[in-house]
Write a structure and sequence with these properties.
The complex is a heterodimer of chains A (about 400) and B (about 150).
Chain A lengths: L4 H5 L9 E3 L1 H4 L1 H12 L4 E5 L8 E6 L5 E6 L5 E5 L14 E3 L3 E2 L6 E2 L5 E3 L3 H5 L12 E7 L3 E5 L7 H5 L4 H4 L6 E11 L3 H7 L10 H8 L9 E3 L5 E3 L27 E6 L3 E6 L2 E11 L2 E11 L4 H15 L4 H16 L8 E3 L12 H14 L25
Antiparallel strand pairs in A: 1-19, 2-11, 3-4, 3-6, 4-5, 5-10, 7-8, 8-9, 10-11, 12-18, 13-14, 14-15, 15-16, 16-17, 17-18
Helix pairs in contact in A: 9-10
Chain B lengths: L3 H16 L3 H6 L1 E13 L4 E9 H10 L10 E12 L5 E13 L6 E14 L6 E9 L13
Parallel strand pairs in B: 1-6
Antiparallel strand pairs in B: 1-2, 3-4, 4-5, 5-6
The chains are: A alpha+beta (about 400), B alpha+beta (about 150).
The complex binds FE2/S2 (inorganic) cluster and fe (ii) ion (FE2).
């Protein structure tokens, strides 16, 4: 039976933890607040160490809290991060996404900085500022940077934050043995999609949508063991999904795999979602990393990286690239479907469309089609935002019908 | 000797058939040893990237599986201009470089937007009666493809 307006807006018959109000995906006000309370406080992946192999190599990064960053390897080989903002008249310091800069010299009035963020020269400084302003007053704003968990470069714009290790805790335990060798990025592309970043992270946090993927239906869902995989939640909103056998031989063209990944059973699959928008995805012979960077409530840029082992032979690397392309490349079978999904959500859930609820109500003992991964995310989101995901503005009347079941925390 | 016009028309016909989603018609223009790839250079990671790579059988499988996937159904139009044709001897191969622009037309309302630009690097086999594609490298300048696409350019 279809529903009328009153019924459409009625709270779903689930505990409050099992659905969210769609304004969390559409509100400009909440987006601005997320930039401060979520992205401004969490450790975020800016790039991978293999993108900065040499001293003075740099990468620029548009941090989801809003600030443009430079990530640069110093002469001492330490990686540091700074605002990509000139302290003089606010110009962008480094324009290219990548490069090598012994000195960072602003093109505007030629102030110079070293890779430790110290100002080394103010052009005609004495003449203009006399003793009133010196290089010591003009250092770059440094933000915390730390390398870890597969060689990724993590940054945190909050000077008061805890360490990266405290933030991750045990969440990446399942992957640690598979990432204790140097890795290298071989694939990088971005997609800008008119949708909310959380919808992308949600898609990475639920496997129920394997129905959308022909590839996954036949290589995974129809195979024994598929429904044995379990979600585990960790502090700070991270969640993992355990390994299972994926029958790639069931998909013509995906047979005869040989390279694999150290320690990963053939056909194994480990997926770990790191709050608030990063996903480790180890499958076949490739580690994929997604980084979701919101540009607005209904716009996200997602960075996609494919990684192999630094020690790969050309033949091994070629096979990893083929494995990656088949499902995850821009022309891959699955990535397009996943992006099509969140693109469609972005069309249906916009201010004014009268969308109201998104349901995360599946309970299957935290196995693969349980929606506990998303519930775990929104518990953390609500804690950090000081708002209820099911009622962010305190405008949804009515009480929850049943007590919420808690997700087992490892 | 196979005239240049026949080589040009092979390139143009291959794009017209793909535009029309006449995939078996496209494969008829390809030699059994045909290889297809989409490549791009990423300045961000300073690396050459392969985004898609198939032999003729792999490409046929990709085409055959298209109805089983969920895809963006907006049609695309490939605009191609043959820039250069270089022959290797009289009956050898010809190397053909063409400019490529791909436009996407929305189903709802028909708005057309530029989807991608790049070049086609084709190798054409000339030793039979009709020229055939033996290798196509779609070299993309555009790396931002939004939600992506299931049909190769
Ligand atoms: S704005 Fe950078 S030196 Fe003036
Ligand atoms: Fe998916």
């Amino acid at each position: 039976m279809s529903r009328n307006a009153i019924q459409w807006h009625q709270k779903p018959g689930f505990p409050d933890t099992h659905y969210v109000d769609t304004s969390i995906y559409t509100s400009e006000e909440l987006f601005r607040e997320e930039q401060v309370k979520v992205f401004g406080k969490c450790w975020i992946i800016a790039c991978h160490e293999s993108e900065l192999p040499n001293a003075f190599d740099y990468r620029t990064f548009q941090h989801p809290a809003g600030v443009p960053l430079i990530v640069v390897r110093g002469e001492d080989m330490k990686v540091r991060a700074f605002y990509n903002i000139c302290p003089h008249r606010g110009n962008t310091l480094l324009y290219d996404p990548v490069g090598n800069a012994k000195r960072i010299t602003c093109i505007f009035h030629a102030w110079s900085f070293d890779t430790k963020g110290s100002c080394t020269d103010i052009s005609r400084g004495k003449e203009g500022y006399q003793e009133r302003f010196k290089c010591e007053d003009a250092g770059l704003r440094e933000v915390k940077a730390s390398i870890g968990y597969g060689g990724f470069v993590w940054v945190n714009t909050d000077d008061e934050s805890g360490s990266l290790q405290e933030y991750i805790g045990d969440a990446l335990g399942m992957l640690e043995e598979h990432m204790n060798m140097p890795l290298e990025v071989f694939h990088y592309h971005k997609a800008v999609v008119d949708t909310n970043y959380k919808l992308w992270h949600d898609t990475n946090s639920e496997f129920y949508h394997d129905y959308m993927h022909y590839f996954n239906r036949i290589t995974g869902m129809l195979q024994p063991g598929y429904f044995d995989r379990k979600y585990t939640g960790y502090p700070n909103g991270h969640a993992s999904v355990g390994s299972m056998s994926v029958r790639y031989d069931k998909y013509e063209g995906s047979k005869n795999r040989s390279v694999g990944w150290p320690g990963l059973a053939p056909g194994g699959w480990i997926l770990i979602d790191i709050f608030p928008g990063m996903t480790y995805n180890l499958r076949t012979s490739v580690l994929r990393m997604d980084t979701a960077i919101p540009l607005g409530p209904n716009k996200v840029v997602i960075e996609f990286r494919g990684l192999g082992l630094k020690s790969d032979t050309p033949a091994e690397r070629a096979e990893r690239i083929r494995d990656h392309n088949t499902i995850w490349g821009p022309f891959g079978r699955n990535l397009h479907e996943d992006l099509l999904g969140v693109h469609g959500q972005g069309i249906a859930m916009r201010e004014g469309t009268d969308s109201k609820w998104v349901i995360h109500g599946r309970e299957e003992n935290m196995t693969i089609h349980d929606e506990g991964g998303m519930r775990h995310f929104y518990a953390e989101w609500s804690r950090r935002m000081g708002r209820k995901a099911y009622d962010p503005f305190g405008t949804n009347p009515g009480a929850s019908p049943a007590p919420a079941k808690k997700l087992a925390t490892a | 000797m196979i005239p240049k016009q026949s080589i040009d028309e092979l390139i143009y016909r291959s794009c017209m058939r793909l535009d029309a989603k006449d995939f078996s018609g496209f494969l008829e223009l390809c030699d059994p040893a045909f290889r297809y790839s989409v490549t791009a250079f990423s300045p961000e990671i300073r690396k050459e990237m392969i985004w898609l790579e198939h032999d003729k059988a792999g490409l046929k499988l990709l085409f055959d599986n298209l109805p089983r996937h969920n895809s963006d159904h907006s049609p695309i139009t490939r605009h191609v201009t043959v820039y250069t044709v270089e022959r290797e001897g009289d009956a050898g191969n010809a190397r053909v470089v063409s400019g490529l622009q791909v436009f996407k037309t929305a189903l709802d309302g028909g708005e057309t937007t530029l989807f991608a630009v790049g070049k086609l690097y084709d190798t054409v086999k000339l030793d039979g009666g009709t020229p055939l594609l033996v290798d196509r490298n779609v070299r993309l300048d555009t790396r931002m493809l939004g939600i992506g696409y299931h049909i190769p350019f």
